[in-house]
# Entry
Amino acid sequence: MLTKLGLLSALIGLPLAMTPTVSHEEPTPRSVYVTNILSNDITRFAIQQDGGLTADAERTGTDAAPRGIVISPDARTVYVANGDAGTITTYHVGADGGLTALQPSTSTPEDPDDAVVSPDGQRLYVISRSAAVVTMFRIGSGGRLTTPGTSVPVLGENPRGIAMTPDGEFLFVTTGDPVADTVPDVLVRFRVEGNGTLTRLGTTPIGAAGGAMALTPDGRFLFVPCSASHEVFAFSVGSDGGLTSVPDSPFPTPDMPIKSATIAAAVTPNGRNLYVTNGGLIESGSKLVLAYTILKNGSLDHIADVTAGDSPVALAPTPNGQWLYVSNLDSNDVSAFRIKADGELEELGPPVETGGKRPAFQSIAVLPNQGPQAALSVGETTGLEARFDASSSSDRDGHVVRYDWTFGDGTVLKDGGPRPAHSFPAPGTYQVTVVVTDDEGCSTDLIFTGTSTQCNGSARARAQKAVTITSD
# Structure
């Protein structure tokens, strides 16, 4: 059977012997982390090839009442907001996905609920529900947080959800109490200054009790689930951070006979689909996850509802866009789904127990994919023909599977393999460029969906060399 690179070489007409040696050692399975608010710990799951989950035998301890969990873009640090302790616990991520606590914990204003790491990985922003503030911490060496942080008041009670635009220029915070709130609340808008501090821009009306938000990777659209009013608001994001409702917004969600809450949203890495949990309250009676197609104007086309565990509360797609994982508050487990090409969800099997108790608000996170690094060298040059070698390109958490070439003479070779040959039209000096892509679709672009990095792509996935052709 041909390897991926062998098949690629066959398709572009290169001999199989010219493909680089590929290690058969597979990378460590990608990790999924779930916080358990009543057992004060984190469960780590490993994603198997079929999308199923396998839990570690032992859980990692936290401070009291862990809620929101976020991961740095470089996948080396995990941060957990501990509501009752008033702290952020910081963890180093090992090569196997295991977590090691970095002591001591960092104090926050009262009742931290959720957090977001800026797309550049330099700052952590934490919302504190009872204190009604957003606190910015600078991230230092090894992922450690500087103390104390800088806090800014939120206009509105019970800030719950937090999201940042992919360019890191604007921050949004939802307000409201999903249990007691029955009147419309507001979304608070902030501009992120060059030093990371926040300037409040104003508020935008939403439904009752805003929840955990999501943005499309291009930063054009923001989606806000509202727990108590059972609807999803969709906004177009302006260049100044202003929000404009998209056509037909807000979009109603099921209003269950027993109390439920439309509490969290997540967008797929390709920006095509939105998924929303419709549970999130103790003994809500709901098991629904709602699936939508995101239209070109930001409107939502409802696809279907699927059944998760008891009271689904938080959700996270994988960086390759193949799987979706949902933490379930009442059943203490995680549901796994396959994301089909049309956005529909297919359950992979029964939910997998966390071993802990009560995953709560924003309790699930998937380790981000790290972009590949391109390497390029110029091989033998014969007349107008030159050979190029990018086989030393690497990927920290996977494999390089695609090589796109431009040869500086107007010729483009898409998916051209690691060692192409090219004939130039005339003598001269040409800038040859290769852009590599890994096995999860990550390349030069950073893909960020409001609360989490999916692909930590960068310019490292591009390499360029000048080649001088001297004769024909």
User: Anything to note?
Assistant: Residues 433 and 464 are 4 Å apart (CA to CA). Residues 4-25+371-469 form a domain with the Immunoglobulin-like fold (CATH 2.60.40.10).
